[in-house]
Write a structure and sequence with these properties.
Number of domains: 1
CATH topology: Rossmann fold
Shape: globular
Strand content: 5-15%
Radius of gyration: 15 Å
CATH class: Alpha Beta
Number of helices: 7
CATH architecture: 3-Layer(aba) Sandwich
Structural class: alpha/beta
CATH superfamily: 5'-nuclease
């Protein structure tokens, strides 16, 4: 399963052509795409109206939605955060730490356009799809 981060969905929904959105639109079968509850949360919180949020939620419901929080994941995510911080890498968003840890633990690949995930890939084994 390829988990698509909000950094890519936002560009796609805004119709911005980037290497990541081109890859998403043309190269990955939709039945292999998924998102997490935290990614959906990030997308929905950025919408200005309830009607647009409902429309977006309906649109995103075609993809597999994975619950991110599971027993023990928060502990592992905190360990990962500290591990990166000890290497001089500070992850800017807690949500990204949870998403990366979820992908690492469940073996999912991540398509993203956010530097917060680079340390997880380099040091902690996060599998990333690169355009």
């Amino acid at each position: 399963m390829v988990i698509v981060d909000s950094s890519v969905w936002i560009d796609l929904l805004a119709q911005r052509e980037t290497p990541h959105t081109v890859l998403l639109a043309k190269s990955i079968p939709y039945d292999q795409l998924g998102l997490t509850d935290l990614i959906l949360f990030e997308l929905l919180q950025g919408v200005r109206s309830d009607s647009r949020a409902e429309e977006l939620q309906e649109r995103m419901s075609q993809f597999t939605l994975w619950p991110t929080i599971s027993p023990g994941l928060e502990v592992k995510a905190a360990q990962n955060y500290r591990s990166l911080r000890q290497r001089g890498i500070t992850v800017r968003k807690t949500v990204d730490t949870m998403i990366a840890t979820f992908c690492i633990e469940w073996g999912h690949e991540l398509l993203h356009n956010d530097r917060d995930f680079d340390g997880f890939e380099k040091y902690l084994g996060l599998k990333v799809i690169h355009p």
